[in-house]
Design goal:
α16 crosses α18. Strands 5-6-7-4-8 form a five-stranded parallel beta sheet, with helices on both faces. The protein has a three-stranded mixed beta sheet with strand order 1-2-3. It starts with a helix and ends with a helix. The protein has four domains: 89 residues, 2-Layer Sandwich (GMP Synthetase, Chain A, domain 3); 166 residues, P-loop containing nucleotide triphosphate hydrolases (Rossmann fold, 3-Layer(aba) Sandwich), CATH 3.40.50; 68 residues, Helicase, Ruva Protein, domain 3, CATH 1.10.8.60; 100 residues, DnaA protein, C-terminal DNA-binding domain (Chromosomal Replication Initiator Protein Dnaa, Chain: A), CATH 1.10.1750.10. The chain is built from 20 helices and eight strands. 55% of the residues lie in helices and 9% in strands. The protein is of the alpha/beta class. The structure holds adenosine-5'-diphosphate and magnesium ion (MG). The site of adenosine-5'-diphosphate (ADP) has 19 residues, from α5, α10 and α12. Adenosine-5'-diphosphate binds next to α5, α10 and α12.
Length: 456
């Protein structure tokens, strides 16, 4: 994706999150430059004051918006622009990066991705241990190291941590971190400008080659060939090679057999989606990195989302932080629910819980809800209970009917429809239904029974 496209995408998201005045004041004077295989985004600002202010107030938000627009994590930095670099009209025409192959610079490693900032759980323990081992003793034990796992499970974080750790403990060592896509593009450039020799030299002198998202090489014969030779040269010289992929070598379509065997020489480790405890720990760590103390309750709520992709979970966090800061409100469970809203997966609730909670809320008995009295005071709460039973449990319409004193499934369907319609036109009822739902989903059996005691 091109820099203007990324900036455009990010701007759209920013506009939706800040007031027009804020946007006008703080974001219109900015422009964007992408660096290092598009892993680092430099936001150009008019002066120091701007840089500080933006970093502090909108740093996380920009980070998120840009990464989302780019489709991958970007390390965002701020730089005071030379006056010529900044004209409002330039917003959509960011400064171009030079096409020539850039020198190897450790700066391409995101400094935030270290072993210290990586939370260990069952899902990633082995992968982390293997990475630490190769970072400590490169080229010795596991060469190559092949890390595979789904999107947002920490592949880039870990492979970067290897580079950061290596540089810290082997000063003067040469690391190259890049995506397989970057490798490919560079190779194409090199071929076009007759720079193959330079390209090969550049890659063959490194002590530690970290190539991210190797699945990109699928079906690219020329790149695979070049990588094969690079691999052999480095391996023979005892240099460390680490690659990541979203699949195992055997599952990468169009990966040459000789490369596949090379990958299988070493160690293959996988990353699994984190369990709830690990998710909580990660969220709290990410929050702490932003100087935020995320309550256990909120972290748990987010961790209960079925989402395993940590980047997505972080995205929730960014939105929550942004909205809480713009609206000047605290991060409560309520706010979080509103922000994460439609993506929220509810706690498993039983029909019995729905019945007793709705009964308490409306000052009725469960038997009223199960009965057949047709007065509005009873029939409306009954329909609310049907609606919530449908929404919060996995029960089918006939099952719900049976639990409501043996009613026909069509009665349930009608009841649910009725409430859905009313929720649109009747804000008071909507609020009542929402608060009942909250009682039920908050792990709120205690909440419900508290209400029952005092409410009836
Ligand atoms: P992938 O490359 O596998 O798609 P990333 O390495 O980009 O995933 O991770 C996505 C986000 O999740 C990053 O911000 C990363 O720091 C974070 N992350 C993933 N796993 C962990 C972990 N175990 N501890 C802390 N942060 C993690
Ligand atoms: Mg990645």
């Amino acid at each position: 994706m091109s820099t203007p496209d990324i900036w455009l995408g990010a701007s759209q998201q920013l506009r939706s999150l800040v007031s027009p005045q804020e946007y006008e004041t703080w974001f219109t004077p900015l422009s964007l430059r992408l660096e290092e295989d598009e892993e680092r985004a430099v936001v150009l600002v008019p002066n120091r004051f701007y840089a500080d202010w933006i970093r502090e107030r909108y740093g996380a938000l920009l980070d998120h918006a840009l990464s989302q627009a780019a489709g991958h994590a970007l390390a965002v930095d701020f730089e005071v622009a030379a006056s010529t670099e900044l004209a409002p009209a330039q917003l959509a025409r960011p400064v171009a990066t030079p096409p020539a192959p850039r020198p190897l610079a450790p700066a391409s490693l995101n400094p935030r991705y270290t072993f210290d900032t990586f939370v260990v759980g069952n899902c990633n323990e082995l992968a982390r241990a293997a990475c630490l081992a190769v970072a400590d003793q490169p080229g010795r034990q596991y060469n190559p190291l092949f890390i595979f796992g789904g999107a947002g499970l920490g592949k880039t974080h870990l492979i970067t941590a290897v580079g950061n750790h290596f540089l810290l403990h082997h000063p003067g060592g040469l690391v190259h971190y890049g995506s397989a896509e970057g490798f490919t593009n560079e190779l194409i450039q090199a071929m076009r400008f007759d720079g193959i020799a330079r390209f090969q030299e550049k890659y063959r002198q490194v002590d530690c080659l970290l190539l991210d998202d190797i699945q990109f090489l699928a079906g690219r014969e020329r790149t695979q060939e070049e990588f094969f030779h690079t691999f052999n040269a480095l391996h023979q010289a005892g240099r460390q090679i680490v690659v990541t992929s979203d699949k195992m070598p055997k599952d990468i379509p169009g990966l040459e057999k000789r490369l596949r065997t090379r990958f299988e020489w070493g160690l293959m480790v996988d990353l699994q989606p984190p369990d709830e405890e690990t998710k909580i720990a990660i969220l709290q760590k990410k929050a702490a990195e932003r100087g935020l103390d995320l309550s256990r309750k909120v972290a748990t709520f987010l961790a209960k989302q079925p989402e395993g992709n940590i980047r997505v979970l972080e995205g929730y966090l960014t939105r929550i932080v942004a909205i809480s800061s713009f609206q000047g409100v605290e991060i409560t469970l309520d706010l979080v629910r509103r922000v994460v809203g439609p993506l929220v997966s509810e706690r498993q609730v039983s029909i019995e819980e729905v019945l007793s909670t709705v009964a308490s809320q409306f000052g009725l008995k469960v038997s009223d809800l199960k009965g057949s009295r047709k007065t509005r005071e009873v029939s409306q709460p009954r329909q609310v209970a049907m609606y919530l039973a449908r929404r919060l449990t996995r029960a089918s319409f006939p099952e719900i009917g049976r639990s409501f004193g043996g009613k026909d499934h069509s009665t349930v369907v009608k009841g649910v429809k009725k409430i859905e319609e009313m929720l649109r036109d009747n804000p008071d009822l909507a609020e009542l239904v929402r608060s009942t739902e909250r009682l039920l989903t908050e792990g709120g059996v205690s909440g419900a029974s508290r209400l029952k005691d005092g409410g009836v």
